[in-house]
Each structure stands twice: as structure tokens, then as C-alpha cells.
């Protein structure tokens, strides 16, 4: 491109930008609609919505439906509560081998992996709170998930 054609191109861009700015700043600020809107009566609106597949309810009908849903939900919750009470609880049992050099943190992680406890860190905190972290001795221990944390600590830490 030559310098003359480059100047012409830049001048065209400036003119186009100027025209866009003038239209933007001094043009009409209100959007005009080309379509005329017709006002529908309530019955016509209900018929139109019903023909489109929508269901139209009054406020009273809506409140009645909400009350029915809430009562059925409460009934379902009470049924699930009784079902969960009657279900058998799964008890995990593991043989934990504590080797020389293991810490209570390692034991907690191993128990968590075996699904005996939920949190290895919480187990470690409980061991520290009871003050028996130095009483860990190598050996083989049988523990179950239905045991309390205190019972597990009393079995492993002597």
C-alpha cells in the first residue's frame, strides 16, 4: 500500500466514526415498535394459554395444590424415616496391623481407609486429647465400625 492510499483509508475510517458518533449522540433515544399490540381480555388470555398447553389456576386453586404437595411430602418423609430405622446397619470389621514406627496419624488414616471411622484427623485429635499418643505399641488389633472412638483407642493404645 502506498502512503496516499493509506491516508485515504484512514480518512474514510475517521469519517465513518464521526457519522456513527453523530447518530449515537443526536439520534432518537426511544425505541419505536412497528407492531401494534392488541389488548386481550382475561378470557382470551386464558384460552390462548390453554391452547398453548399451559394450565391456568386461580390463587385459591394454587394454594390448595401447594398444601396437597406439602402434606404428601411430609407423609413421604415420615415413611422414609421408618424405613431407615428398620434397615440393617452395615458394620465394617478390620484387622489393623500396627508396625514399628507408625504414629497415631497413620493409624487414623488406616482406620479411615477401612471405613471404621469417618475422619482420620478427628481420630488423631481424640487420641491427643486423651493423652495416649505415646502408648501405641506394635501388634495386630481387631476393630469394628460400630465401636466408639474411645473403645477403638482403648483397644489399640494400651
Short description:
This protein is mainly α and 158 residues long. It has helices at 3-26, 42-51, 59-86, 104-113, 120-130, 149-156, and strands at 93-98, 139-144.
Instruction: Give the count of helical stretches.
Output: 6
Strand order of the largest sheet: 1-2
Report helical residue fraction: 55-70%
For the record, give the distance between the C-alpha atoms at the N and C termini, rounded to a whole number.
91 Å
Produce the secondary structure layout.
Layout: H1 3-26, H2 42-51, H3 59-86, E1 93-98, H4 104-113, H5 120-130, E2 139-144, H6 149-156
Antiparallel strand pairs: 1-2
Helix pairs in contact: 4-5
Could you name the key traits of this structure?
2 strands; two-stranded antiparallel sheet; mainly alpha; 6 helices; 158 residues
Plain-language structure description:
- With 158 residues, the chain is mostly helical.
- It has a domain at 101-156.
- 58% of the residues lie in helices and 8% in strands.
- The chain is built from six helices and two strands.
- The protein has helices spanning 3-26, 42-51, 59-86, 104-113, 120-130, 149-156; strands at 93-98, 139-144.
Amino acid at each position: 500500500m502506498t502512503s496516499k492510499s493509506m491516508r485515504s483509508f484512514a480518512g474514510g475510517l475517521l469519517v465513518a466514526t464521526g457519522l456513527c458518533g453523530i447518530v449515537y449522540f443526536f439520534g432518537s433515544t426511544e425505541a419505536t415498535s412497528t407492531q401494534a399490540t392488541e389488548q386481550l381480555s382475561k378470557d382470551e388470555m386464558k384460552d390462548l394459554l390453554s391452547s398453548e398447553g399451559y394450565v391456568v389456576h386461580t390463587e385459591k386453586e394454587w394454594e390448595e395444590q401447594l398444601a396437597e404437595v406439602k402434606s404428601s411430602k411430609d407423609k413421604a418423609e415420615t415413611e422414609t424415616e421408618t424405613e431407615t430405622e428398620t434397615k440393617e446397619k452395615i458394620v465394617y470389621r478390620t484387622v489393623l496391623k500396627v508396625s514399628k514406627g507408625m504414629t497415631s496419624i497413620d493409624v487414623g488414616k488406616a482406620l479411615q481407609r477401612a471405613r471404621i471411622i469417618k475422619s482420620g484427623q478427628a481420630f488423631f485429635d481424640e487420641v491427643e486429647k486423651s493423652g495416649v499418643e505415646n502408648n501405641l505399641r506394635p501388634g495386630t488389633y481387631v476393630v469394628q465400625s460400630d465401636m466408639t472412638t474411645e473403645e477403638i483407642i482403648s483397644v489399640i493404645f494400651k
